[in-house]
Amino acid sequence: MSDSTSRSRAYEHGQQCGRGAAFTLVELLVVIVVIGIVMSLLLLVGGRVLEHQKRAATQNTMRLTEMAIEQFKTTDPLRDIYNNPKLRDRSGGTNRIVGCT
Description:
Elements: H1 3-12, H2 25-75, H3 79-83
């Protein structure tokens, strides 16, 4: 067999002379599309996880703030003044003490 005959047979079988096996454009496009789909799913799930973490952190902050307010109410030396209706402003305000602005 001549060299040109073996080369033409190599091309017929999908082989290139002097090069290793290569991927076709269709195979590369399929891989790129699959990678894109996987990445979009990961971003979608990752966004939901981040939203859940933010919500949990906010709820924790609110719970700690409520606990701090309750602790302040029980340990504040002026708590009796705040709760005494005789010392409240007569204009309907509930947080202002008479004489304080």
